[in-house]
Write a structure and sequence with these properties.
Chain A is α+β, with helices and mostly antiparallel strands and about 400 residues long. Chain A has 14 helices and 13 strands. In chain B, about 35% of the residues lie in helices and about 30% in strands. In chain B, helix 4 packs parallel to helix 6 and helix 6 runs parallel beside helix 7. The chains are: A alpha+beta (about 400), B alpha/beta (about 230). Chains A and B meet through helix 1, helix 11, helix 12 and helix 14 of A and helix 3 and helix 4 of B.
């Protein structure tokens, strides 16, 4: 079936009709080129938006205390809700399926010093799990651990920017050094990087929450509870969030429907919404792209139809000499697949090339970065091409197979 | 003792063929009986529209007959699918046409080799055999020329070489000299006669030229879809 002879036959016909073959191939190449560019741009958009989501687990849920806005059980509105350690324990015990959970205290911007270097940083007392929830990357040393919590150690994990601002000149080693937070010395145990886009997130200092409650006299108050939902499905995550909400509503007596009593940031919800949006965009792109390719295929099919018509006599001769219908079908389809495949491949290479060029030379912006056509897309496009080629060749091939030798030979 | 049928290369009995175009029915063959023995060389004559070409198409398994029986070398030709018909044509029959019917973008050697391509014979071997046949036609030097670079006589000789290459049992020639001048016509007939004699290939030649018909052993005249006359030459 795939003999050299067959290819030679095809090569001969193509060589005989260079311009025609080129124009047809161009339509297909253009279709694939556009599809790749569209998909690549779609990916660029998606990468850009995904960048906005960085600096926190995709399955993270953050619950902060707020002020009531709905009357409930005879209690007036405007009550300030104050979370305590008790709430943290309640939620930890009531929800099932979380993999990391942490409480946080908001101390706000605090003056921190290392000898003569001063700076204002966000000090964030939390549990060790917060490292996971925030998806920070430890560059040196370690993050907080359970022993720090249990023994209320005065230790601190500091952000990269904190380190560069407080440890300058000869004094560049931060690890194991003491920094002064609100007049209390804390030992630096780790330096981390936060992938969040906000500069302030790099200027954070994490200390054990138990230590903070003790040394800064905040007793058992906490401001935020956050957890990640593990491998839970979106529905299961919703159940977990609802459970947490009910627990808090019961212990603080506020309406579960009050939108302001607690403030919820559900990253998985946002991610889900954007994923749905991008699935939509991707589908839209594929529809347009496939539409363009179909135009190309119809072109190839049309040309093959004319080619078959032109070659009626030749096909008649071949049949007379013993060509079976299958061999005629194979001949025509193989030519169609060759043209679409070859032209499509050129379109693919040009498209990927252009995307690479854009990717290399265009600075990433907030909503567009790294347009790329990945391996899956290339494979998908290739399969699409072969199917397209087969489609393009099918009808002309059937027409060719149906040629009756006597009628073909009668033609002059 | 040889089988009766093996003596008869072509044996057709009561062949009918009707062409239907829309509401028109054209009864072209109205019951043809013909027996051609192996190694015979016969000519078929008749006015245009008499049905001689239709008969040739049916004998060439290029068309189906409606009624009657057709035995080719003892094989019953009936309700064949296209694949089977193609294989039979390839194996048993060689065709020579008035308009040569060479593939225009293939050179002489490639044209001659084409039937062997459909027998899945390797390219090298195929070309070797093709050269051998072209040599026999005195066209070795023209092997790499395209058909439009050849004269009518040369083209027909290429076509004959192509008809011979698969070693057929029967050669069917439809007006083989129709497009040639009289000298060339005689040359082509010389070749065909030689082949018939030396290789014992059965030959059926449709023609409307009497001097061509005279060179065969037997002439069959068809009038209005029936054989009206068989003359020994």
């Amino acid at each position: 079936m795939f003999s050299i002879d067959r290819w030679q036959e095809i090569y001969l016909t193509i060589r005989k009709n260079k311009l025609r073959t080129f124009l047809t191939g161009f339509a297909v190449a253009w279709g694939i080129f556009m599809l790749i560019i569209l998909l690549g741009s779609g990916n660029g958009l998606e990468n850009g938006v995904k960048e906005q989501f960085k600096g926190g687990a995709m399955n993270g849920i953050w619950i902060s205390s707020g002020v009531t806005s709905v009357q409930y059980k005879g209690l007036k509105t405007g009550r300030e809700i104050k979370f305590t350690d008790q709430d943290y324990k309640l939620i930890k015990n009531s929800i099932k399926g979380y993999d990391h959970i942490s409480a946080r205290l908001f101390l706000g911007s605090v003056l921190v010093s290392n000898k003569n270097e001063y700076g204002s940083f966000f000090v964030s007392p939390s549990h060790p799990d917060y490292g996971y929830i925030k998806e920070i990357q430890v560059l040196q040393g370690r993050f907080l651990n359970q022993i720090d919590i249990r023994e209320c150690r005065k230790v601190a994990a500091i952000g990269e920017k904190v380190k560069t601002e407080l440890f300058k000149g000869r004094d560049t080693v931060a690890l194991e050094k003491y920094i002064n937070i609100k007049g209390v010395p804390f030992k630096v145990i780790g330096i981390f990087r936060d992938f969040g886009r906000d500069d302030n997130e790099q200027k954070r200092i994490y200390i054990p929450i138990t230590t903070a409650q003790k040394v800064f006299y905040t007793s058992n108050v906490i401001n935020q509870i956050s957890f990640t939902t593990g491998n839970a499905s979106p529905e299961e995550a919703d159940v977990m969030l609802k459970k947490a909400k009910m627990t808090l509503s019961r212990s603080h007596t506020f309406s579960p429907d009050d939108p302001r009593a607690i403030d919820i940031m559900n990253k998985s919800e946002d991610v889900r919404r954007f994923n749905a949006l991008f699935a939509g965009i991707r589908m839209f792109i594929w529809i347009i792209g496939i539409g363009t390719i179909i135009a190309g295929i119809v072109g190839v099919s049309n040309i093959m139809m004319i080619s078959v018509k032109e070659r009626t006599k030749e096909i008649g001769i071949r049949k007379t000499l013993g060509a079976t219908p299958a061999s005629i079908i194979g001949l025509v389809m193989q030519e169609a697949i060759l043209i679409t495949g070859f032209a499509g491949y050129i379109g693919l290479v040009l498209g990927v090339g252009l995307l690479e060029l854009i990717s290399k030379n265009m600075p990433p912006s907030d909503f567009f970065r790294n347009p790329e056509a990945n391996f899956t897309i290339a494979i998908g496009a290739t399969i699409l091409l072969i199917i397209a080629g087969a489609f393009a060749g099918f009808f002309p091939a059937m027409k060719a197979a149906a040629i009756r030798p006597i009628e073909a030979l009668r033609e002059e | 003792m040889r089988d009766f049928n093996s003596l008869q290369m072509i044996n057709i009995t009561n062949i009918h063929k009707t062409y239907v175009t829309g509401t028109n029915k054209l009864h072209v063959l109205k019951g043809i009986d013909l027996k051609v023995e192996a190694g015979e060389m016969i000519s078929v004559m008749g006015a245009s529209g008499s049905g001689k070409s239709t008969l040739l198409n049916i004998l060439g398994i290029l068309d189906n007959h409606d009624h009657g029986e057709y035995l080719l070398s003892g094989i019953k030709i009936e309700d064949l699918n296209e694949r089977k018909a193609a294989q039979l044509r390839n194996k048993y029959l060689g065709f020579v046409f008035q308009s040569f019917n060479l593939v225009s973008f293939k050179n002489a050697a490639e044209n001659v080799a084409l039937p062997l391509y459909y027998q899945n014979i390797k390219r090298k071997k195929r070309n070797l055999i093709a050269m051998e046949y072209l040599d026999r036609m005195g066209l070795k030097e023209w092997a790499h020329h395209l058909p439009n670079e050849l004269s009518g006589g040369q083209k027909q000789r290429v076509a004959i070489a192509r008809a011979l290459i698969a070693k057929p049992k029967v050669i069917l020639a439809d007006e083989p000299t129709g497009a040639l001048d009289s000298v060339t016509s005689q040359e082509v007939m010389d070749i065909l006669t030689d082949i018939n004699r030396n290789e014992n290939i059965t030959m059926l030649i449709v023609t409307h030229e009497l001097d061509i018909a005279k060179r065969t052993q037997k002439t069959i005249r068809i009038t209005d879809g029936l054989i009206t006359e068989i003359v020994k030459n």
